[in-house]
Amino acid sequence: MDKEKIISELKFKAVRSSGAGGQNVNKVSSKVILSFDLMSSEGLSEEEKLQLESKLASRLTSENILILNCDEDRSQLKNKEIVTKRFLQIISQGLVVPKIRKATKIPKSVIRKRLKDKKNNSEIKQNRRKPDF
Question: Among 42, 45, 120, 132, which is least packed by CB within 10 angstroms?
């Protein structure tokens, strides 16, 4: 993964933010929308593209474009920085390969202890019953 190449491939679009903010909301385009075309990216290898496509399937459009937006700040520049950081975090998390679980055998001592505890619990409950004369 080549971060600089990927960042250069990002497309940013500034639009007017919704919500509270008075007259400023109607005049200033502070909301930033980031779009990234996963399949035409040159900063990712083919294996990485396939892995990201499967892991980010719910976030991708039908054309395999990842779209993120940010309107947390009043500044367009800060929103651009925030959405870029978020994008890089999503991509790096998508490329993490989980460790393969190795099946292990249960030790005999653990099995013996469990059976002993079950037997002990059974005897305690037996002693709670009324005696049968």
Answer: 132
